[in-house]
Specification:
- Helices cover about 10% and strands about 50% of the residues.
- It is mainly beta.
- The chain has two domains: about 270 residues, Beta Barrel (Porin); about 35 residues, no CATH class.
- Strand 13 and strand 14 form a beta hairpin.
- The radius of gyration is 22 Å and the shape is elongated.
Amino acid sequence: MKKILQYALWVLIVGVTTFSVMLAEDTQTSNGSSAGDFNKVGSGGGQFLKIGVGARANAMGGAYGSNSNDISSLYWNVAGIADINGIAGSFSYTSWFGGFSHNFVGGCIPLGDKYRAGFSITSFTSGNIPITTIEQSQGTGTNYSVSDFALGLSFGGNITEQFAFGATVKYVQNAFSNVSAGGVAFDVGSIYKTGFQGTNVAFSIHNLGGQQSYSGQGLNVTNTTVDGLVSNPVDQQYLTSPFNLPLIFRANISTDVMSIINGEAITPEDADHKWIASLGFETLSDSPEQFSIGTEYVWKNFVAIRGGYRFGHDSFGVSGGLGLKYISGGFDGQLDYSISPTQALGLVNRFTVSVRVP
């Protein structure tokens, strides 16, 4: 029965993956985009959904889906929560460009021995931005703000000893200046543990859902001129075009480098030295394909050193970071930091605090 269920889930994942990739390619083709002329960049909404969560994952260049085993799995590959033991929580803060901030909070609880339930809240905010016009280029004295968020509920677990599966349903809202758009989207993910040198293979699909449209009082205007002539006030409303959320497909593979060096099947959890390496691939509906590599070395389950590189991204390339972990009895506390230089917009710093109890 387990094998039948496992095969059925793999068929489902392959089917949804194929559909998603075909949909992304169709979206690109229908808009005249190609590898050398990608005119869909920035044309969709919900762009904050493409901002990576967690200092650990981003220090590794985002090559993280197959070795994700912490709360940031709720973003990278929800199947990863299957390997979280006990009750866990995490908070991440990202200092983004132009004074924007990106925050993530998530938690996970066990449902029996095999399954887990989780929640996540992601916000992307600007603070106050002065409103300017052609006539008042220094500001009108009023402000507006951007406030996007996603609220997700997740379920995942180990279907077999080698296969984990997870899914998330989330509500996504984009809002600015008395205008907002919202809707429901879904993520699905899987991780297959090959049993060979700690090698894992993972696939995930993100932001499956329908189109959204902006609405709100900010679209209402009152005109006192018609065709250049003064008239009685006429109430009007701007029309908006519907948009898609960024559809993302990720494929990852990771391996336990230290087990290869030591000739072991897998490095023990309490080993003095642990070293993993990973490769990642992303295809997006509104951006060119991207590749990433990442690595993490952990000494005595206390200090972690990480590094990574993104290929094909127009802003990010090299990344790195550090982590400190404290273990006492059944309590785990972890502090992670990552830094991601950009080509033209300065440094992006991320901080993550995580805790876990039995």
